[in-house]
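dude i think i finally got it to work??
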Amino acid sequence: MHEPMSARSARLAATIVVLAAALLGGCGGGGGSGGGGGGPLSCSVDDQKAWLSSYFDSDYFWYALSPRPNPQSPATVAEHFDALLYTGGDARFPRDRWSQYESTESFNRFYGEGRTLGYGLSVAGLEVVGQPAMPLLVRGVDPSSPAATAGLVRGDRILSLNGRSAADLIAADDFDALTPDRAGQTLSVQWRTVDGTERSAVLVAAIHDVAPVRGARVLATPSGSLLGYVEVRNMVSQAAPAIETAFAQFRASGVRDVVLDLRYNGGGLVSSGATLASYIGGTRVAGQTYATLLYNDKRAASNESFRFATPAPASAANLGRVFVLIGRRTCSASEQVINGLRGAGIEVVAIGEGSCGKPVGSLPRADSCGTTYSIVNFESVNQANQGRYFDGFQPTCGIAEDFTQPQGSASDPLLVAARVMADGGACPAPASRAQPLAASRERTRGRSDERQDMVPR
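look at this
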């Protein structure tokens, strides 16, 4: 018998901190220098580099294709990490642009507590790379964040950050100022509001909740049919109760189709994505394979499958199609939701722009020196063995974002398209491939609450 999702969600929420501790704490200190048995012998630069080399050779998905830099070189630990990354050359795989690292404190805060350090301000930097004459617009503000307290909203135009003009920031493709290193760090912002008023404020970096689920409600299509809408921003365990509540609302209202807004979802836990997909697929897919994670040949014994769960009766909506709003920041575990549903035969209508293209994930590993490494350890395939969507998922209906319109509002062009198509109408604009993804630092580095993760927990 399959465990009901209400019980499974509660169990996951209650144990995620323990899981994170077991995953990370068991990887530090003492032991040998190998990637499979503990952390570096010490926190000296040479020992950290030697451990990284061994870890990559043992666990890196592309270990057979990656460089072999000498750990005895004068490079720093960060330089050695970069030198270990697969740079391309195999027609099956693009270069590795996802392996990364962060402080263990930051990782545990995000996945253990569902919180992040930041200003809560996101800008539409990807859309204006190489175009310094274009306006730099706010694309989102986190609830209860310093930016929200200062009154910034989506559609405001950034004039400067810490005295650097928007044109300079765009030309340099440098949005590092938006990612603080510590609580209490400040960011001076000048902006023009949507009504044309110029304002300024000094934001103070703080730890705040990530608010993984937002805006759940029931809408009417132009013909009067009911349509569920929910934005899932992060695949973390803290999302489970709000997701369950949203789908219970959809069931009680008798909605037939659902709009799932993943345009800013960079991923997270595979289990959270599977839970979300299970509410959409319902009893039609319960027990089927959601995703299979395939490790390198040295770690093939670790290959594992995640299955669709059985929805709790109160939340088991009889859904038809799912309209998924996607974009350049739809990545990793959020793309896995699309792939998993399609592999199980669920009709997924993608609206927006092409997704980021990351069918690979990481089993994060902490050293004993305060750093957690998320190198690519596996690739993900669905029940039909479909994967390797490195070019991203292209939209069924290609619609460009309008950052001057509130996300999820009646004037949001992506949601407008979903409401029209839910009534059987055609896409309001010709479907087309999205523009190629820019090699932007905003994309490859990202903000801590928009990480590009697929974590097998």
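Residues 6-36, 431-449 have pLDDT under 50 and may be disordered.
im so relieved honestly
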